[in-house]
Specification:
alpha/beta; Aconitase, domain 3; Aconitase, domain 4; 6-stranded mixed β-sheet; tricarboxylic acid cycle; iron-sulfur; metal-binding
Length: 754
């Protein structure tokens, strides 16, 4: 039986009425996304025809999911809110703090030894406040959510950008910062700008080497890394119905890489099969009763251009396998074009590692398709050229795959089976030799491939592909290997060719597991004490940020003018820094150390206007804070792209940064900055970015009149005494301005709960 089945049945019992009311309000047929959004309006929100991309709307999500790295800060904030229990079903999943190095058992034990303090903290907070807890080794948050909690037509938020994976089961599932999650945990509405809608019509059917992963790799190439910003991507058509539920999850998962608010699919037979295979017959039965409301209206899909803001059509019959990269997940290359492109760009053609798994591609079906390629290599007498690493998505997937012999196939190729955890996907990989910073190529089925992401080496060229293509390329050892056309030389000197991969949508003998790794919270957690040692290096109780004094910000100095792509990885790196995710002051020592300074094109080297010398970004900022000088961060387009980690907003705020002004923001990061009381602005004229000089002083001359839709005037005073006046745009509404005035959204919650 499903978790929280009563909540699901209650939603479904009201769904028909809410959908019909929304049709009357809007005066038109509805997309699936609109049905879910309008059926999850907060009781405090007045239903009306919302304007896409403009109106801020209050919603009531059905549940919340947090992974261990972000849960620490989210729960530290929740502990300040004065509530006895979470108001909405919530889970914590321990998947980020396990480093891939030697193999599953040894790596898991090493994580338990090194991060025991954090795991104990998360478990005790979960038990106390009514939160479900998934132990280290239980699996990657998004695969575990798909197997246990996701349901068609639901809405959930999660403190990880790849929460969107649950769209594979027909949800509107959205990645948020911890402060957003805290709002919902305490029973408040959750605010979101009503999304624009992008429709992707899928015709035909996948075959051969093409996979669901290639659908999103193709879409990423079309829309780019910011093309989905402030939009929900809704997939439909015969091609959508022909794919498995976990395949749909892969597509939705990587929607985060195009900046999409989320992605989703309508309820169909594949979702029903998956629900029943994962022990949720009750959800499938309930969903079948309201199936018509768990899809867009027929008129929408018949004439999508009338109902979506943008429509893309992809013919699955002709879709080729892709490898995307390096250094960005939207640089798309069909396999047959790789030789020319790689040679032109001087990408290393020798492949050193093939990595399969992560939250994006770690289902039973994914492993079975990759294993079919690996099995062929063994049978055809091929020797693997690259090293292999496998991260199963959950203990249930791992146990079942081991039972059915899939993992043994990989082990026969000397693959390392890592823990059921994120591992290399989020930089938790102790890769031998990475410290040498050698130029090299790896291929993986993960979602992100930013510089230094997987192994900390800025010269690792990482390419994203499907599990089966990763397996073939790793075995061949060549980036430009095309398994559709190319042959390989086996141990007998013969030319052999791979046959098309095969896979199993679901395990023929059903899923099985001995210990899934779940712990129920205590029925009454009031007696549980949460202890955080004062001298802990891993955990630190939070102190409130100071409220705004209501005055203009004057005499502010430039901390850094970031050049080009500046993701949350650049602002707050993962990898070895993950150990400080619960200690704000310690992790603040990595603030923007990966950002490129536009004035010297170096990382972690900025000029201090106090001393005139260059130094590390965190050290320079701490010096400004010590003498009370406000500071400004300047950024390029899509600033804050990538992970939902709110540390990238909390760290600058903690160190004393007052303003972040950029050409454009990634959605989650802009919200995180607002929540933490940082003034988040965009250039009214993006060319004004070029006017910012290294020794500038910033005077915000009319901030005292801060109001919605009112531009903010900034006087730039240059070192030679000359001045420029520029304008900053913002997207704050009245409620968000109150966050700024209070010093943070959490401060406002605390005031209301007194």
């Amino acid at each position: 039986m499903a978790f929280n089945i009563d909540i699901i049945k209650a939603l479904y019992s009201q769904l028909a009425g809410k959908v019909e009311a929304a049709r009357k309000i809007t005066g038109k047929p509805l997309t699936l996304s609109e049905k879910i959004l309008y059926s999850h309006l907060s009781s405090e929100e007045t239903p009306r025809a919302f304007s896409r991309g403009k109106d801020y709307v209050d919603f009531a999500p059905d549940r919340i999911a947090c992974q261990d790295a972000t849960a620490q800060m989210a729960l530290l904030q929740f502990m300040q809110a004065g509530k006895a229990q979470v108001a909405v079903p919530t889970t914590v999943h321990c998947d980020h703090l396990i480093q891939a190095k030697l193999g599953a058992d040894k790596d898991l034990q090493a994580a338990l030894n090194s991060s025991n303090e954090v795991f104990n903290f998360l478990e005790s907070v979960s038990r106390k406040y009514g939160i479900g807890f998934w132990k280290p080794g239980a699996g990657i948050i998004h695969q575990v959510v798909l197997e246990n909690y996701a349901f068609p037509g639901g809405m959930m938020i999660g403190t990880d950008s790849h929460t969107v994976n649950a769209g594979g089961l027909g949800m509107v599932a959205i990645g948020v910062g911890g402060a957003d999650a805290v709002d919902v945990m305490v029973g408040m509405p959750w605010e979101l700008k009503f999304p624009k809608l992008i429709g992707v019509k899928l015709t035909g059917k996948l075959s051969g080497w093409s996979s669901p992963k290639d659908v999103i790799l193709k879409v990423a190439g079309i829309l780019t890394a910011k093309g989905g910003t402030d939009a929900i991507v809704e997939y439909f058509g015969e091609g959508a119905a022909s794919m498995s539920c976990t395949g749909k999850g892969t597509i939705c998962n990587m929607g985060a890489e195009i900046g999409a608010t989320t992605s989703t699919f309508g309820y169909d037979d594949s979702m029903e099969r998956y629900l029943r295979a994962t022990g949720r017959d009750d959800v499938a039965d309930a969903a079948n009763e309201v199936r018509e409301h768990l899809n867009g209206d027929p008129e929408v899909y018949a004439n999508p251009e009338q109902y979506f803001d943008q429509v893309i059509e992809i013919d699955l019959n002709t879709l080729l396998p892709h490898l995307n990269g390096p250094f960005t997940p939207d640089l798309a290359t069909p396999v047959g074009e790789m030789t020319e492109k790689a040679t032109k760009n001087d990408w290393p053609l020798d492949v050193e590692w093939g990595l399969i798994g992560s939250c994006t591609n770690s289902s039973y079906e994914d492993l079975s398709r990759a294993a079919s390629v690996a099995k062929q290599a063994i049978e055809k007498g091929l020797k693997t050229k690259a090293e292999f690493g496998i991260n199963p998505g959950s203990e249930q997937v791992r146990f079942t795959a081991e039972r059915d012999g899939l993992l043994q196939v990989f082990e026969d190729l000397d693959a390392t089976i890592f823990t059921n955890a994120c591992g290399p996907c989020i930089g938790q990989w102790a890769r031998a030799g990475a410290e040498d910073k050698k130029k090299n190529t790896i291929v993986h089925s993960f979602n992100r491939n930013f510089a230094k992401r997987a192994d900390g080496n800025p010269n690792t060229h990482a390419f994203v592909g499907s599990p089966e293509l990763v397996a073939a390329v790793a075995i061949a050892g060549r980036l430009d290997f095309n398994p559709i056309t190319d042959t390989l030389t086996n141990d007998k000197g013969e030319q052999v060719k791979f046959e098309e991969p095969t896979g199993l949508e679901l395990p023929p003998l059903g899923f099985d597991v001995e210990d899934a790794g779940y712990l129920e919270p205590d029925a009454d957690g009031s007696g549980i004490a949460i202890n955080v040692k004062e001298d802990s290096e891993r955990l630190q109780l939070l102190e409130s940020f100071s409220p705004w004094d209501g005055k203009n910000i004057s005499g502010a100095k430039l901390l850094i003018k970031a050049y080009g792509k500046c993701t949350t990885d650049h602002i707050s790196m993962a990898g070895p820094w993950l150990r400080f995710r619960g200690h704000l002051d310690n992790i603040a020592n990595n603030t923007l150390i990966g950002g490129v300074n536009a004035f010297n094109m170096e990382t972690n080297s900025v000029k201090s206007q106090i001393t005139g010398e260059y130094g590390a970004v965190p050290d320079t900022q701490r010096a400004y804070k010590a003498v009370g000088i406000p500071t400004v961060i300047i950024g390029d387009h899509n600033y804050g792209e990538g992970s939902s980690r709110e540390h990238a907003a909390m760290q600058p705020r903690h160190l004393g940064v007052s303003v972040v002004m950029v050409k454009s923001f990634a959605r989650i990061h802009e919200t995180n900055l607002k929540k933490q009381g940082v003034l988040a602005l965009t250039f009214a004229n993006s060319d004004d970015y070029d006017k910012i000089q290294e020794d500038d002083t910033f005077n915000f001359t009319d901030l005292a009149d801060f109001a919605p839709q009112k531009q903010i005037t900034i006087e730039l005073v240059h070192s030679d005494g000359s001045k420029d006046t520029i304008l900053g745009n913002h997207t704050y509404n009245e409620a968000q301005i109150e966050w700024f005035k209070a010093g943070s959204a959490l401060n406002l919650i605390k005031l209301k709960n007194k």
